[in-house]
Amino acid sequence: MRNLDQFEFKCSTCDEIHKGMPSFGTNAPNYYFSIPKDEISERVFLTTDTCVIDNENFFVRACLEFPVIEYLEKFSFGAWVSLSEENFYKFEELFDKEIREDEPPMFGWFSSWVWPYYEDTENIKSRIHFRNYGIRPYIELEPTNHPLALAQTIGISEKDLYKIYEYYVHG
Q1: CA-wise closest residue to 64 among 159, 1, 147, 171
Q2: Which segments within the chain are labelled E, that is strand?
Q3: What is the mean pLDDT of each run of 10 residues along the chain (171 residues)?
């Protein structure tokens, strides 16, 4: 078993050797990207951890984690989950709390794309699990046959990680 800091590969896009594993993620939930640019400032409140659209759609950012086959650590992807209004305000209330890992998980709908490897990932049933202050919560996808849920359960290969890496580094 290896550590993710030992991860390296020759990129098929730029022909360079990439070393180490940065984290990747999306800056906003999917719904954000459907709003016309000239309306965003009126309709959206977006931070690095929360998003409210039209004062009726509530999203939080958390870590979608995947075991990587033959590695000790998990690969983490910053993704968004929609929450009910009640859970969103509870999330905000707990956000700066020092000890929060014992809080019950919150139900939500996965609201991010994880390209290029996985098919449509919108609205997979999910749970947000709190971790203590300073560590983003993590996302547990409902166990299904969806490729993203399977990847979270059984892990991804180095080759899968290459594809994700190349996409997010080179577009």
Answers
A1: 147
A2: 8-10, 17-19, 24-25, 44-46, 50-53, 57-67, 74-83, 106-110, 125-129, 138-141
A3: 80 83 87 96 97 98 94 92 98 94 97 77 94 95 92 91 83 72
Q: For residue 114, which phi and psi values (nearest 5 degrees)?
A: -120, 90
Look up residue 136 and give its amino acid: R
Residue of 88, 79, 28 whose CA lies nearest to 55: 88
With a CB cutoff of 8 Å and minimum separation 6, the contacts of 134 are: none
The region that residue 139 occupies, defined by phi over 0 for left and psi between -120 and 50 for alpha, beta otherwise, is beta
Structure tokens at 108: 């939500």
**Residue extents of the structural domains in the chain:** 24-156
